[in-house]
Amino acid sequence: MRNSLASIFLPIAAIAAALLLFGVFVWFAGVNPVEVWLLLFKGAFGDWYSWQNTLQRAAPLMLTALCVAIPARAGLVVIGAEGALVLGGLAAAALAHAVPLPASSVGTVMVCLAGALAGAVWIALAGWLRQYRGINETISSLLLAYVAIGLFKHLVEGPLRDPASLNKPSTFSLAEGLRISGIAGSDVHWGLVLGVLVCLVAGLWLRITPSGFAVRVVGGNPRAAQLVGLPASRLIVLACALGGACAGLAGAVEVAAVHYSANASLIAGYGYAGILVSFIARHQPVAVIPVAIVFGGFGAAGSLLQRRLGLPDASVLLLQGIAFVLILASEALRDTDWKALWARVVRVAGPRIAVAVPPRAQANEITP
């Protein structure tokens, strides 16, 4: 019970502390912190227009957070979702251009599967390097992300470039029938529903299936996994592939629902923000959903801060960075026995307080 309360309270406290520190920074910039906090809330959840921007940004955050969360349940720290996302978007656009697809939901599914496959292969490579070559997955996945972005720029600005895209290099646009439409005519596309479903399915897979349980055993106690004969290497590569598939799917959805082609707009930092979302959610796929919505709101509010207060649009990145540092710091407090800590403080401070009171003052207090 205490661990459950800590899992809820500590992330909330870290976000609150991040907002306070962010307020201090903007105060030094000559801006009223209270006004900043109010605009953050208004830009994220103030009206239906704000909600649409928030939910639209939350969709890729859910999927990129799973790229961190699923391997984390196997004991890995994978931070290369940005690379898987851009390659997933590139694969979706390239397939739609290279192969005549049916202009229907079947073609849209094929486009999304191409993106998921590209992301799965890319992140599975980080898991393979870790298990079979001993290369740290955090370093390899980060470096692979830079390689993926470089490869993406080369192909988009070169072999796959649409000649009609002059000022902003991009691939050929997806056909109308392959695009993901908005829900009930709104700006919120069906990718949000897809992201929620994938989070729920991932949570159920980890919770109730034998393979999901095996992944959690490998991540929680590798020695026990070896003793019972679990194929740890294959499970780790599987977890990385599934996480990469989620990030690649995020890229495909962004292409099919938002940009309609692969271009530099895909490199929007969703993969790096997904790291923060996953850590705040404690790598729980279901908990990723509300956290992604909150941080999608922070991203949506950036333009409002710029218009109303003159702060840079990227100032919300500072807020996200502070929150990430505080979330990591709060992990050290998770197993703290607060009663024992308070008792220790009282024992140490008690004698010092007694010494600080002058003996004459004590005698005067006793004398009637």
Structure in words:
The protein is mainly α and 368 residues long. It is 75% helix and 0% strand. The protein contains 16 helices and no strands. Helix 5 packs antiparallel against helix 10 (232-259).
In brief:
This protein has 368 residues and is mostly helical.
How does the SSE layout of this entry go?
Elements: H1 2-28, H2 33-45, H3 48-73, H4 81-98, H5 105-133, H6 137-157, H7 191-208, H8 210-220, H9 222-227, H10 232-259, H11 270-280, H12 285-300, H13 302-309, H14 315-330, H15 338-356, H16 359-366
Helix pairs in contact: 1-2, 1-14, 2-3, 2-12, 2-13, 3-7, 3-10, 3-11, 3-12, 4-5, 4-6, 4-10, 4-11, 5-6, 5-10, 7-8, 7-12, 8-10, 11-12, 11-14
Oligomer: single chain
- What would you report as the Rg, rounded to the nearest angstrom? 25 Å
User: What is the distance, rounded to the nearest whole angstrom, between the alpha carbons of the first and last residues?
Assistant: 51 Å
Average pLDDT number: 87
List the secondary-structure elements in sequence, H or E. HHHHHHHHHHHHHHHH
Strand content: under 5%
Shape: globular
The largest sheet is:
none
How many strand segments?
Answer: 0
Report the uncertain regions. Answer: none
As a percent range, the share of helical residues equals: over 70%
Compute the number of helices.
16
Q: Which structural class do you get from the secondary structure elements?
A: mainly alpha
